[in-house]
Write a structure and sequence with these properties.
Blueprint lengths: L10 E7 L6 H11 L6 E8 L5 H11 L3 E6 L5 H11 L4 E4 L5 E2 L3 H11 L5 E10 L2 E6 L22 E3 H6 L13 H11 L4 E12 L10 H17 L3 H9 L1 H5 L4 H12 L4
Parallel strand pairs: 1-2, 1-4, 2-3, 6-9
Antiparallel strand pairs: 4-8, 5-9, 6-7, 6-8
Helix pairs in contact: 6-7, 7-8
C-alpha cells in the first residue's frame, strides 16, 4: 500500500541524480530508504538534467510511494545545485543525504535521529561505512566520533552521503555553495563553514551505510581541480582559525598527492580502508 504524505515528515532525505544508467543502482538506493525502520520521512530526488532514461525511471519510482518527490532540472547544474533545490522543497526538521548508488542499512535513519534528539549540542551526524563495488564489500571507514577542527587538516572527517543535518543549521550557513571551485568538495566546504559558525558534528561508530567505490580506482585529478581543492582548504582553514601556524602546510596537500604515483595511492587506500571484512 502506497504511503500518504499528509503529515509533515521529521526527516527529508535528499538525493541528486544524473544519468543513472540502467537504473539498477538507483533502484537499490531508493529501496534502502523504503526499507528504513524509521518510516517518518520523505525522499526528494532532483534529476540534474539527465540525458538518458533516468527521468522515466524516476517517474516510476515516484508512483510507487507518495513520500517520494521528484524534481527536474533542464540542465546539468552539478550536485550542490541539485541538493539546494531539494532543500528548498524539504519539509523535515532534519535533512539526510543519500546518493543514487549507495545503500543505507535499515536502521540508519532511526539510529541517527535517536542520537540527534539525545544530543542537542550536535548539529550534524554521519556514520561509519562499508566500501563496496560490484565484486562485494572490500573495506570500511570509521571516521572520528567527535571530529575537531584539527581533523579537517588532513582529510574530510565525514562521509557525505551518510549525513543527517538539523535544518536550521543548514539554512543558517546558506546550504551548499554552488561556486565552481566547490564541485569536488561541496561537502568538505559545508562542514568547515558549519564549524566556523560554531556548529559541531559527530559520527556514529556503527556501520550503517554502504558506500560504493571501486577499490582499484584512484583517478588522477586535473591540475585545475587540485588548485580548486587548495583554494577550498585555504578558505576553510582561515574561517576556522586553523591557517596558522600549521594549516597552510595542509593547503598544499592536493599538489603533494598529485606527485605520488597512482599505483602507490591505490595500495595506500586499500590498506587504509581494508578493516575487518
Amino acid at each position: 500500500m502506497k504511503k500518504g504524505v499528509a503529515n509533515t515528515p521529521i526527516v527529508s532525505v535528499i538525493m541528486g541524480v544524473y544519468n543513472a544508467g540502467d537504473g539498477r543502482r538507483l533502484e537499490q538506493a531508493v529501496q534502502s530508504i523504503l526499507a528504513q525502520t524509521l518510516q517518518d520521512w520523505e525522499l526528494i530526488i532532483c534529476d540534474d538534467g539527465s540525458t538518458d532514461g533516468t527521468p522515466t525511471r524516476l517517474q516510476a519510482l515516484q508512483g510507487r510511494d507518495g513520500r517520494i518527490k521528484v524534481l527536474y532540472s533542464g540542465i546539468n547544474r552539478k550536485l550542490a545545485a541539485a541538493l539546494n533545490r531539494c532543500i528548498d522543497c524539504a519539509r523535515g526538521r532534519y535533512i539526510a543525504r543519500m546518493d543514487d548508488d549507495d545503500v543505507s542499512h535499515p536502521e540508519r535513519l532511526e539510529k541517527q535521529l535517536r542520537f540527534m534528539e539525545a544530543h542537542p549540542e550536535i548539529s550534524f551526524c554521519g556514520t561509519s561505512a562499508q566500501y563496496f563495488s560490484d565484486e562485494g564489500v572490500w573495506g570500511r571507514r570509521c571516521p572520528p566520533a567527535r571530529p575537531t577542527k584539527a581533523d579537517f587538516l588532513f582529510s574530510n572527517p565525514f562521509i557525505h552521503p551518510s549525513m543527517i543535518i538539523r535544518r536550521e543549521a543548514l539554512v543558517a550557513v546558506g546550504g551548499y555553495s554552488e561556486e565552481k571551485i566547490m564541485r569536488r568538495a561541496e561537502d568538505y566546504d559545508l562542514w568547515m563553514r558549519l564549524y566556523a559558525a560554531g556548529y559541531e558534528g559527530a559520527n556514529l561508530q556503527e556501520i550503517l551505510f554502504d558506500y560504493r567505490e571501486d577499490k582499484d580506482s584512484f583517478k588522477k585529478r586535473a591540475y585545475r581541480y587540485r588548485v580548486d581543492e587548495a583554494r577550498v582548504r585555504l578558505r576553510g582553514f582561515r574561517a576556522m582559525g586553523m591557517l596558522f601556524p600549521t594549516g597552510w602546510i595542509y593547503v598544499l596537500k592536493p599538489f603533494l598527492v598529485g606527485l605520488i604515483p597512482s599505483t602507490w595511492m591505490i595500495a595506500w587506500k586499500k590498506w587504509r580502508l581494508k578493516g575487518d571484512v
